[in-house]
């Protein structure tokens, strides 16, 4: 492909510039073929640490490693040519110090070629975001329900139900934006809180279970495609992939048992006549 024909990749400043504009379309991706399908429709693909639960069958995201994120990040970068690809920093890879976060983020970016990283950003993370952003790492924050804090929080719980908690989420948003994140994922908060945050911060907010009051939306792709029996209440299912796959595999099993396949002679004849 010549340089002229190359598709221009969405950048962090492009996403930043969408504040208050056309809503950002974002989904998670973990592998190359799915990234290829999602890419033309999405502004941003997130290699979320949800990969641990969605793909590897873990109970939470706590067991996800840097090596896992890099492997999946490389695969998604091979499939996606246009969307900005952001890779999640897993639990334990950034909380210790800004220096630890920078070294691991730089490794993710160098080894995957992704355009940004995301960290879960309680107010404690502001110094780390600033340290990385000042050193040319495009950072997305993640506030509200923070899955990596689920054990400490006693589960995956919506946030902002009390006045104190509501203020804490607003503080997280302001600290994350002022520290230099170019976008913020808001997870699991009520519409009025999402709206207040979106009106308060200067960078785009990307909601998940946080209403349409955000500057964009993200979902776990397998949730919206209906891969699992259970999905969070806020997820609209656009397909029933589990049922369709089950039916297709049942048909395959039946064909195998009935020996209902083209004979090898037919296959080779077809190939020859195809040229
Ligand atoms: O890990 C993930 O997939 C995420 C999204 C749900 C925002 O953080």
Summarize the topology.
Blueprint: H1 12-16, E1 24-28, H2 32-38, E2 44-47, H3 51-54, H4 66-79, E3 84-88, H5 98-112, E4 116-120, H6 126-134, E5 139-144, H7 150-153, H8 163-179, E6 183-187, H9 191-200, E7 205-208, E8 216-219, H10 221-224, H11 241-257, H12 264-274
Parallel strand pairs: 1-2, 1-8, 2-3, 3-4, 4-5, 5-6, 6-7, 7-8
Helix pairs in contact: 2-4, 4-5, 5-6, 6-8, 8-9
The structure holds 3-methyl-2-oxobutanoic acid (KIV).
What are the key terms here?
single chain, alpha/beta, binds 3-methyl-2-oxobutanoic acid, 8-stranded parallel beta barrel, TIM Barrel, 275 residues, 12 helices, globular
Folded structure, characterized:
This protein has 275 residues and is an alpha/beta fold. The protein has 2 domains: 3-239, Phosphoenolpyruvate-binding domains (TIM Barrel); 242-275. It is built from 12 helices and 8 strands. An 8-stranded parallel barrel has the order 1-2-3-4-5-6-7-8, surrounded by 5 helices. Helix 2 (32-38) crosses helix 4, helix 5 (98-112) crosses helix 6 and helix 8 (163-179) packs parallel to helix 9 (191-200). The radius of gyration is 21 Å and the shape is globular. The two termini are 26 Å apart.
């Amino acid at each position: 492909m010549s340089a002229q024909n190359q598709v221009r990749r969405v950048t962090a400043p492009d996403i930043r510039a969408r504040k208050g504009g056309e809503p950002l379309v974002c989904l998670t991706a973990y592998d190359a073929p799915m990234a290829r399908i999602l890419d033309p429709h999405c502004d941003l693909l997130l290699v979320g640490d949800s990969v641990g639960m969605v793909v590897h069958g873990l109970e939470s995201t706590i067991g996800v490693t840097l090596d896992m994120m890099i492997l999946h990040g490389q695969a998604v970068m091979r499939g996606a040519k246009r969307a900005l690809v952001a890779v999640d920093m897993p639990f334990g890879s950034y909380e210790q110090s800004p220096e630890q976060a920078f070294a691991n983020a730089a490794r993710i970016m160098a080894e995957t070629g992704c355009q940004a990283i995301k960290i879960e950003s309680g107010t404690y993370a502001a110094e780390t975001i600033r340290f990385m952003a000042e050193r040319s790492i495009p950072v997305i924050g993640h506030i509200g329900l923070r899955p990596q804090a689920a054990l400490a929080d006693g589960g995956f719980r919506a946030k902002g139900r009390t006045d104190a908690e509501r203020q804490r989420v607003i503080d997280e948003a302001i600290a994350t934006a002022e520290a230099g994140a170019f976008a913020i994922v808001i997870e699991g908060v009520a519409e009025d809180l999402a709206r207040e945050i979106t009106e308060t911060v200067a960078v785009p907010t990307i909601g998940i279970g946080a209403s349409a009051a955000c500057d964009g939306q993200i979902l776990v792709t397998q949730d919206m495609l209906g891969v699992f029996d259970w999905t969070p209440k806020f997820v609209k299912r656009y397909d029933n992939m589990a049922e369709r796959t089950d039916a297709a595999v049942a048909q395959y099993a039946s064909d195998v048992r009935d020996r209902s396949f083209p004979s090898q002679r037919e296959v080779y004849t077809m190939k020859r006549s195809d040229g």
